[in-house]
From TrEMBL:
Protein name stated in the entry: Response regulator RpfG
Segments of this protein annotated with the region Disordered: 64-84
Pfam families: DUF3391, HD_5
Segments forming domain HD-GYP: 141-337
MF GO annotations: phosphoric diester hydrolase activity
Organism: Cupriavidus necator (Alcaligenes eutrophus)
SUPFAM superfamilies noted in UniProt: HD-domain/PDEase-like (SSF109604)
SMART domains, alphabetized: HDc
Matches recorded under InterPro entries: DUF3391, HD/PDEase_dom, HD_GYP_dom
Compositional bias per record (Pro residues), positions renumbered to this chain: 65-84
């Protein structure tokens, strides 16, 4: 049961259900928590928050009778879109090619936001998340307009931008998987932030063990394995009052069989958020270029991960992941029975094994053909193999030009 009070009435022991004003303007971006100490009370008041909704069933009520309740509406239930909340405003659907244009701009601005956040951490300055949170909401809106455009684009990483774009790609994947799993909007938003900051601890470690092209020595491996805990410390010092980014940051290298690091947690010791983080981080790492690793095709990464379900990765979350990015993710190159190469350009929700593809290359003739859009549900064509586009002389960027014009 919610009561609306003035922020100066706030006391330790009250459960804050919502803070007045846009959430972005105050440090308590996860605006649901038990007020644990006077410091938090002072922070809310000094952040200029005028009014607070408290849940009197979960925490302390205001003393009656000399502290009247402020009349006024209580917030809308969480399941309805909140006009104050940019992440939950419904977005009109967009075509793939239209959304790719917007997602490209978003990636550019995101690179600047993440770059300055990372630079602050390297300089030992406190983590500033407001820009990151705006980015999470922009990613969220892009995924609402088109479920695949941002995910496909975020896989393409120019040399030198890998770290920023890995953070952004994992952010987008985590938002998308969180939605597929039906998690509440506030959790999905936290997952997005978790994606942006999950590897932030690497910024405080020496470069060599973290970005080494060859195999790490045991000492280097020991240093590398500190990055989840180092990230946890940075986030803890930023005092976000939010558990999900902390949890994902410290546990994204844990594995369900207990053979991960830093703590070797297993099974139910790992939260669903940590399991989502592990899968999204692994997928983006496998499909990205980094020192000593050529990017794998999405299909190869999916195959690799699928055989490691129940040892490295959680089965339920992986299932949601495949529903999110598709068994044949956008941009996957397939060989068809007619001996043509085709690139996946849209999923068929009802029949994920038969996506829409764009045929573009004749194998027997060793040359490109005029493109042809084929819906594998309604065609005699079938998939006979995965192909590596690079072996046929196509970059991911060229493939995108083929499939982005096809939706
Ligand atoms: Fe990591």
């Amino acid at each position: 049961m919610l009561r609306r009070i003035r922020s100066e009435q706030l006391q330790v022991g009250m459960f804050v259900a919502r803070l007045g004003g846009p959430w972005i303007n105050h440090p308590f971006w996860r605006a649901k928590f038990l007020v644990a100490n006077e410091d938090q009370v002072r922070q809310i008041q000094s952040a200029g928050v005028q009014e607070v909704w408290i849940d009197i069933l979960k925490g302390r009520n205001i003393p009656a009778p000399d502290t009247p309740e402020i009349p006024g509406p209580v917030p809308a239930p969480e399941s309805t879109p909140d006009p104050m909340d940019p992440a939950t405003v419904p977005q009109p659907a967009a075509t793939l090619d239209a959304e790719i244009v917007r997602a490209r701009e978003l990636l550019q601005s995101g690179k600047a936001v993440i770059g300055s956040m990372f630079a602050d951490i390297r300089m030992g300055r406190a983590l500033e998340v407001n820009g990151a949170l705006l980015l999470v909401d922009s990613a969220s809106r892009s995924l609402s307009r088109h479920g695949q455009a941002l995910l496909a684009l975020a896989r393409l990483k120019a040399r030198g931008d890998e770290n920023y774009l890995h953070a952004f790609a994992v952010c987008a994947l985590m938002i998308a998987v969180g939605r597929t799993l039906g998690l509440p909007d506030d959790e999905v938003r936290e997952l997005g932030l978790a994606g942006l900051v999950h590897d932030i601890g690497k910024l405080t470690l020496p470069d060599t063990p973290v970005h080494k092209a060859s195999e790490r020595t045991p000492d280097e491996e020991e240093i590398y394995r500190r990055h989840p805990s180092a990230g946890y410390r940075i986030l803890n010092e930023a005092r976000l009052y939010s558990n999900i980014p902390l949890d994902v940051c410290v546990h994204h290298h844990e594995r369900v069989d207990g053979r991960g690091f830093p703590y070797g947690l297993a099974g139910s010791e790992l939260s669903v958020h940590a399991r989502i983080g592990a899968i999204c981080d692994a997928y983006d790492s496998l499909t990205s270029s980094r020192p000593g690793h050529q990017p794998w095709s999405p299909a190869r990464a999916m195959e690799y991960m699928a055989v490691r379900v129940d040892t490295l990765f959680d089965r339920r979350v992986f299932k949601a992941f495949t529903r999110t990015v598709g068994i044949y993710p956008l941009g996957t190159v397939l060989r068809l029975r007619s001996n043509r190469l085709a690139v996946v350009c849209a999923q068929n929700e009802a029949d994920p094994l038969r996506p829409k593809v764009m045929a573009f290359y004749s194998v027997p003739q060793s040359r490109p053909t005029p493109t042809e859009l084929i819906d594998l549900r309604h065609s005699g064509e079938t998939v006979v193999a995965f192909e590596n586009a690079a072996e046929w002389g196509y970059s991911e960027q060229q493939l995108m030009e083929i499939y982005a014009g096809s939706a």
